[in-house]
């Protein structure tokens, strides 16, 4: 799944996201320039991922 995200502005943001969420949700890729996050999620994990992502201080704007 791909998401348009806000507040992901630097490599430190990317590292925080990866360190916090990859163990539970799998490999996460972030395109900083276009603010697109890619992760291979099962539908049942989507809401949990969104909640944890937002708890880190970031925002999912929409699904691409």
Give your account of this protein's structure:
By secondary structure, this protein is α+β, with helices and mostly antiparallel strands. It has 2 helices and 4 strands. The chain has helices at 11-25, 46-55, and strands spanning 2-6, 28-31, 36-39, 59-63. A hairpin with a 4-residue loop joins strand 2 and strand 3.
Total helices: the number is: 2
Report how far the terminal alpha carbons are from each other: 8 Å
Mean pLDDT: 95
Low-confidence stretches: none
Alpha-carbon Rg, integer:
10 Å
Order of helices and strands: EHEEHE
How much of the sequence lies in strands comes to: 25-35%
The order of strands across the largest sheet is 2-3-1-4
Overall shape: globular
User: What's the total count of β strands?
Assistant: 4
The major pleated sheet works out as: 4 strands, antiparallel
Helix content: 25-40%
Supply database-style keywords.
64 residues, alpha+beta, 4-stranded antiparallel β-sheet, 4 strands, 28% strand, globular
List the helices and strands and how they pair.
Layout: E1 2-6, H1 11-25, E2 28-31, E3 36-39, H2 46-55, E4 59-63
